[in-house]
Amino acid sequence: MKIDKKLTQLAENLVAYGLKKGADQVQVLIRSSSEFSVDVLQGRIEKLTEAGSKTATLKVIKDQKVATASSSDLDREILHGLIDRSVQRAQLLNPDPFGALPEAEAVQVDAESLGIYDEAIARMAPEMKIQRAKAVEKICLADTRVKKSFGASVSTFEGVNYLANSNGFSGAYRRTSMNCGIQLQAGEGDNLFDEGKSDYARRKEAMMSPEALAAEAIHRVTRLVGAEKIETQTLPVVFEPGQAAMLLGFLNTCISGGNIFRKQSFLGDKLGQKIAAEHINIIDNGVLKGAPGSRPFDGEGVPTRKTVVVENGVLKSFLLDTYAARKLNMKSTGNGSGANNLYIEPGRDTPEEMIQSLEKGLLLTGTMAFGLNSTTGDISKGAFGMLIENGKVTRPVAEITIAGNLADVLQNITKVGNDLKHTSSVVSPTLLVSGMTIGGK
Amino acid sequence: MYSIDRRDFLKKSGLGIAAAATTGLWADSLFAGLSPASNLFTERFGISQEDMQAILNVALSKGGHFSELFFEYRISNTVMMEEAIVKSASENIALGVGIRVLNEDQTGFAYTNDLSLEAMKKAALTAAAISTTPGSARAANLRVQTGNHQLYDLKRPLHQVELGHKLELVREAYEGAKSHDSRIVMAQSFLMDEIQHVSIANSEGLMVSDTRPASVLYGIAVAADGNKQTTAYQSSGGRYGMDYYKNTQTPRETGKQAAEEAITLLSAVDAPAGEQTVVLGAGQSGVMVHEAVGHPFEADGIRKKTSIFWDKRGQQIAKPIVNIYEDPTIPNYRGSMNVDDEGMKTQKTQLVENGKLVGFIQDRLNAELMKDQPTSNGRRESYQYYPIPRMTNTVLMAGESDPKDIIKSVKKGFYAKSYEGGNVMDSGKFTFSVNCGYLIENGELTQPVSGATLIGTNVQILNEVSMIGNDMGFFLGSCGKEGQSLPVTAGTPTLKIDKMTVGGR
């Protein structure tokens, strides 16, 4: 998929049309994408989807009043009607001086240098994707401990975002992604466990091999067989990278500008203060080469960048879009599309060393439910994982709950693993956290 | 080819009525004179039944045994208020067609938002590729299905209401929350309304349309006192018109209920962790019925034998006092539909009768493969998705106990009032996040509790229900499955669960 000059032109023309119709400011985002996905079950293609679509999303500001609209019907006259109505709808709203579009910035990021578009994914033949899904499932089903497969899937995406606004910004970038995953079931009688593994990347060469993915999925589900509740107690917890990312995702909610100005975060007044253990450094990097969340500009046309969020345990920055930045009298950090690549900088310990350091603890491998309160920092989730005794993983644990408060959790991170991988836009290495409440029998 | 430019009508109405400044009137003229059963795509877009049949034939050309077109035109509007001002109003248009081909147990699917005959035939050919042995099957002549329900309140549906009146609803909800108590430091209100028109045609000759109005109003309140801050939500709505917001559940009441809960939570204590007796309050605990009971009954998990219930039909899976059904025909409810997204006239389906498993939640494909009857539960988020078996309105029927007696019977335990949500795995393990609960001490609700998690398995819970209240209430929610989000409700009376794990701080 190439950047289509006609769509760049359409976005720019719609901005001009909005201004002509009386808008003070106009922003137009056009997304064009195509997707392919295949689900394989018991060695047979179960579902195959192939499609392309385009949508336009626009924002119109008139007398400091903001109206938005979107359409998957890109007929020019339909879009003109949508703009006409937006201009008029805006006039019935209240003025909001913070709602203006971002000022143009001098420095722009070169989209192609980010390595987020991969011809190898764009050109991958459907047969290859089908074979990959079949290969993963075949390996998993060959393991007698695996009771059932929910199916393996491979999907690919390619898309172009075009953004233009009345402050003089016009840009476009393209990206690809590929996903491969499988979900399995293991266990006996009514005591069954669902687990699996899925892998995601912008570049094909970054994907796990079918063999490695299958092995990981098998490991993740079979180790849970026979899991039982344990007594209610306080334990140190080793968060596997996926679960550590859940914690970081919660931190992301608590440092996002919208929740700060809405006073929905316990970190709202903590800028410049020590919020985490001293060895903790947290970064959001929108220009990290080949990473899932990299993009040259965010959903408002603001260039992305590297933002130090936590340095030596001290909260240095929130993640801000233009609106929240104005409300807080700060500057946008290029997070108009949320976190770009938010991660905890890796430490020195291997996950094995972290487990070995514990006399008793829990290796947290999965959590369920919502249970995260940004206003208070409270965490309360259903959990499963492996019990650690005398430095060794001994037996599986399920139907327990894990609880704590993010403020304490961040301070109680005693070790950070060396195993950081950018498989999603919010990622973390393995973390060891002391003193979490485990609810069980 | 076409007799009319499909966009001609839209262009005229879009530009001609723009001066009225509301989507409402524009959409109104688009849908003017349409009953829920009219075919917008034929009447307004000029896609004739012959065109549809031609596309269905292209879809069958590589040997599939069934093909289907799902046309959708949806206009949705959102108004949001916070910090005492209406900050934004949006209008969103979704237009497209999803084309599905079945080949034995295999599904080929493609969609496009280009409704030219050429583009639709190309998509049909893509979906057809699920089969590779050219077939000679032809689509049957389309016959318009008649005798469907009319389950929606069509008096002043929200999409026809002028923006000014919608702003009043949003302001009322905002004020209901913000002015409830001086400790409410922040409030938010949203009104979302939509009109979704679908036309479904398939190779067996089915041709049916449905025009579905819907709206939902949210009130959100944040309370603060000293260092403590709490948040609570309330929602209302369904396939109702304006009367609902005037007479049944006013926006002010919705806002106030959110504020009341946020204030209650200011004095909340941490949840007592461990296994204990749990009373699930009526209404909001519908999320438990939805998660723990509903999902494992969905036929895809049954057919693939991944659901815990796959081999339990006809067996006692719950206490005999438990009766559960699925019902997309409750008038005006959020999960209700005249026909499902595969065009089947909707019907009520009993799932559990006196504790026995008697039915599954079926769509067309799974029913066909299991040699079972479809139950009108084939749903999809939009034309961009193929249908899968989904819940609509799921109800655990009222029992005989007075809710007061249920609480009185518990010496020490936990009462769950409202939830943030929950989820369940196919293996039956579920988790709910409780926003607001209470301690039960010596048969009475005492301290409010925040941040609790309920965890268990559906098999265990269905067998630990010892008392069922004679009351009833409904949870309004959106259910996510395989990346598709759909509006649902779930109803439940007060329930006593003898033993459940509660997680807290």
Give the tags:
heterodimer; A: alpha+beta; PmbA/TldD fold; 5-stranded mixed barrel; 10 helices; B: 505 residues; alpha+beta; 23% helix; globular; disordered N terminus
Relative strand content of chain A: 35-45%
Instruction: Give the radius of gyration of chain A.
Output: 24 Å
Q: In sequence order, what are the helices and strands of chain A, one letter per element? A: HEEEHHHEEEHEHHEEEHEHEEEEHEEE
CATH arch. level architecture of the largest domain in chain B: 2-Layer Sandwich
Please mark out the parts of chain B with pLDDT under 50 across 5 or more consecutive residues, or reply none. 1-24
Mean pLDDT of chain A comes to 95
Number of strands of chain B: 22
Q: End-to-end distance of chain B, in Å?
A: 66 Å
CATH architecture of the largest domain in chain A: 2-Layer Sandwich
Largest sheet of chain A, described in full?
Answer: 6 strands, antiparallel
Which percent range fits the helix content of chain A? 10-25%
Report the average pLDDT across residues of chain B. Answer: 90
What do you see in this structure?
The complex is a heterodimer of chains A (441) and B (505). With 441 residues, chain A is of the alpha+beta class. Chain A folds into two domains: 5-222, PmbA/TldD superfamily (PmbA/TldD fold, 2-Layer Sandwich), CATH 3.30.2290.10; 233-439, no CATH class. Chain A is built from ten helices and 18 strands. In chain A, the strands form three sheets. A six-stranded antiparallel sheet of chain A has the order 3-2-1-4-5-6. Chain A has a five-stranded mixed beta barrel with strand order 7-12-14-15-18. In chain A, 57% of the residues are buried. The model of chain A has no long low-confidence stretch (mean pLDDT 95). Chain B is an alpha+beta fold. Helices cover 23% and strands 38% of the residues of chain B. Chain B is globular, with a radius of gyration of 24 Å. The termini of chain B are far apart. At the A-B interface, strand 2, strand 3, helix 2, strand 4 and strand 6 of A face helix 1, strand 2, strand 3, helix 5 and helix 6 of B.
